[in-house]
Each structure stands twice: as C-alpha cells, then as structure tokens.
Amino acid sequence: PFDVLVVGGGPAGAAAAIYAARKGIRTGVAAERFGGQVLDTMAIENFISVPHTEGPRLAAQLEQHVHDYDVDVMNLQRATALVPADADGLVEVKLENGASLKSKAVVLSTGARWRQMGVPGEDQYRNRGVAYCPHCDGPLFKGKRVAVVGGGNSGVEAAIDLAGIVAHVTLIEFDARLRADEVLQRKLRSLENVRIITSAQTTEVLGDGGKVTGLVYRDRVGGDAHRLALEGVFVQIGLLPNTEWLEGTVALSPRGEIVVDDRGQTSVPGVFAAGDCTTVPYKQIVIAMGEGSKAALAAFDHLIRASAP
Ligand code: FAD
C-alpha cells in the first residue's frame, strides 16, 4: 500500500505529491489527466515570481518536478469510488479500469470545471475572447468591452471587478432578475460603465475567425435576437467540482465541494483534500498549490500519529 495516495494531478495534486515524497514516504498519484485545468489555459500571469508562462509549459514543469522524486505516477486513471479505512487502517480508491489502490492516507485533488454555455462560438473562441476567470484574464481586456454571462454572486462580482479594468461591461442574466446578494447588486447598479440585461439568453458568440467580436442574445420576453459588439465574454454560470464520485462517502457542501478544515482534513479519517474541489474560496493555481502542500503535511502528521506505539 501507499503511505500517501493523491487523486488528481493538477497544481494541488502535484504539490501534495512533492511534499509527501520529500518526507521519504511511499507516494502515488492517480490522475485522469495529469496537468489538470492548466492544460486548457494559455497565458498565466499571476503565478507569483513567474511574470509570464503558458498552461502547457507549466503543466510539463509540474510533471517534471513530480518525476524528480520517487512518486508512482498513474496517469489516465479515473477514480470512481472511495472506501473509508476499516480495521486495517487503509483507505481504498477504486479505479475505472477495475483496479483498486490502498493507502494509509489519501489527498483528494480532483479539481473542478467551469460550466459552459454550450452555444456556437464558445469552444472556438475559448482563450481568444471567451474567458472564465476574471482574476486570471481581466487585465487582458483593459480598455475593451466585455460581457459577463450570469447574474449570480460570481457573475456580479466579476462584473464589478471588470468594470474597474475594462471600458464597458454588459451583464447578461437569463432570469427576470439578478440572483446575487443585494449588496452586490447595489454596488453593480452604482457603476456608470455597466449595463444590466435580464431575461436574456445568450445564443451565440461571434468572432472574426481569430477572436471574439460580439455576442447574440435572445430577449426571452419579446423573443427577438440582439447583437452586442464586444471583445470579451466572461462565462460565470457555475464552477462544478469533480466530486460526483464521492457523494455519500465524503461530506460535500451544497455546491458539491469537499468540506475541509484548515488542515485540509475531510469528514473521513485519513482523507484530506485540496484545491478547486474543496470549500476553500478563490480557485487559483497558487492557492491550489499551497493547499496541496498543506494537505500533504497534514497527511504526514496523520501517519505519524497513526503509527505511534
Ligand atoms: P485541476 O487543475 O482541475 O486538476 C484536477 C486533476 O484531477 C486533474 O489531473 C484531473 O484530470 C484529475 N481528476 C478529476 N477527476 C478525477 C477522478 N475522478 N479521478 C482521477 N483524477 C481526476 N488560475 C490561475 O491562478 N491563473 C490563471 O491565469 C488561470 N487561468 C485559467 C484559465 C482557464 C481557461 C481555466 C479553466 C482555469 C484557469 N485558472 C487559472 C484556474 C486554475 O487552473 C485552477 O485553479 C487550478 O488548476 C486548480 O488546481 P487543482 O489541482 O485544484 O485542480
């Protein structure tokens, strides 16, 4: 069995694996796609001390750093179930291929995915005007016009944030009213360079073949289609944690995030979690790495205690 088994190979999982391996304990990583969301990212400019890098490059460096240590990396392996430890003190992780792995401690770092609009142009212009993270990509749209799709708390927060950077923000909400907290709505309405459109269904992202040039929405009351000319579309209709496989075993928040304490401990003894799949706020690379490191140290502490005579 492993001492620490990490499930997920994004920034959180890579950090957890390195921190665990540096303790000289038997460490494994099982990941569906090593690199995680970083593989889908282009420019990264907020990875502190690295002014500019690109997703595929950072993903390759994550993998290289992990391989510098004695870590058993099992790529292209999807976990489908977690079985808490019984008398033998070993947690079991079942894989899609039928195999099962056992470990004294487990770090869950399966990340999350942004909910997509599923409209024409969204895929084609991803990273070319279609963005999901205002903290990451907001500055790329300085002085330009953007839309934020989604009027929940994250959409309204994004619109307020972007209004301070870009020339103009159009917030588009499907429902007849915004769903964000009242205090956020008040702040949003006080901004001069923001327009709010409700009862509007985004139906297409427009582009010139290279980058975004606009967006089409359907007025859900009148039924007619409208075009907006703009350079960026921020999609803020939800972040879905990759935790479906843990339902019923590990305590999850109403949004499906793994509930962790300040050491990354979950509701299951010996099982820790880190990164975008957890309740820790602000989903970012540096945060995921810090949390992954912390969860591995907490797992190591757990091992010391569990093996005490
Ligand atoms: P992830 O990166 O999501 O990794 C999850 C890992 O778990 C993957 O290896 C995945 O394959 C694996 N996995 C999932 N389910 C299973 C399973 N059942 N079994 C086994 N493995 C599984 N952040 C920044 O700080 N700066 C940026 O500029 C930035 N830009 C971004 C741009 C885009 C387009 C996107 C999508 C995100 C961006 N982010 C950025 C956010 C950042 O990528 C995430 O916060 C970060 O990758 C989270 O790391 P993580 O390790 O928690 O999860």
From TrEMBL:
Reported cofactor(s): FAD
Coiled-coil regions, chain positions: none
Domain FAD/NAD(P)-binding: 2-292
Highest taxon of the lineage: Bacteria
UniProt keyword annotation of Iron present: no
Sorted UniProt keywords: Disulfide bond, FAD, Flavoprotein, NAD, Oxidoreductase, Redox-active center
Function: Serves to protect the cell against DNA damage by alkyl hydroperoxides. It can use either NADH or NADPH as electron donor for direct reduction of redox dyes or of alkyl hydroperoxides when combined with the AhpC protein.
Summary of subunit composition and partner proteins: Homodimer.
Family to which this protein belongs: Belongs to the class-II pyridine nucleotide-disulfide oxidoreductase family.
Name of the featured protein: Alkyl hydroperoxide reductase subunit F
Organism this protein belongs to: Luteimonas kalidii
Encoding gene (name): ahpF
Residues of the full protein shown: 212 to 520 of 529
